[in-house]
Amino acid sequence: MGKIFDDELASLKADFMKMAALVRDAVANSGQAFIDHDVDAANVVIDHDHEINELQTYLEKRSFELIALYQPVTTDLREVVGVLKSVTDLERAGDHARNIARSTIKIKGQDRIPEVEKVIATMVNEVVKEYSQSIDAYAAVDESRAKETASIFNEEINDLYNGVASPSYRTMTEKPDILNSAIIYLNVAKDLSRISDYSTNICEWTVYLATGKIIELG
């Protein structure tokens, strides 16, 4: 394909990993802000969301340009398509991190449910771990690790979501005075669950990079 294309592809992949790191920071920092009731940290996540959006637009544009200019085939084409598809999942995960940051602001000063916040803290840690492992597998084009990551976390994150949802719904019935807090907990759990789903998508794109096959790991 030539050295120029190789250099362009390497640059594209480096910028993709930069975006992946920004999203990881957004997920981790928004989750920690919610756990710590830290509105200032939440605002930082919200303020930097535009960086993720701008990188998505840039990466999509560059991917289309590489395809049009060089018409890559086989493995080279898969690498470009992998970036083109995966950036959407990264951007959406970033959107959910921003949502969690906004929930941190909304719940400030409201009554809390300690048992639910404990589960959310565990869920945050596991979602960050899953996301990090999915990105590492993608970077290494490690099919086995991608499949293992999806397998390990899918059921666990679902169980943690239920661990938030059940007491939140119960609280809505038993203590309507803290209805708003219960709704916010549900929204945060949903956002975390969706980030987990996008991590699974990244694992699926890793399998595609390695094999050329599109499969479902969920």
From TrEMBL:
Keywords for this protein: Cytoplasm, Phosphate transport, Transport
Cell compartments where the protein resides: Cytoplasm
InterPro entries reported in the protein's UniProt record: PhoU, PhoU-like_sf, PhoU_dom
Highest taxon above the source species: Bacteria
Keyword Cytoplasm belongs to the record: yes
Any one cellular-component term (Gene Ontology): cytoplasm
Family: Belongs to the PhoU family.
Job of this protein: Plays a role in the regulation of phosphate uptake.
Protein's name according to its UniProt entry: Phosphate-specific transport system accessory protein PhoU
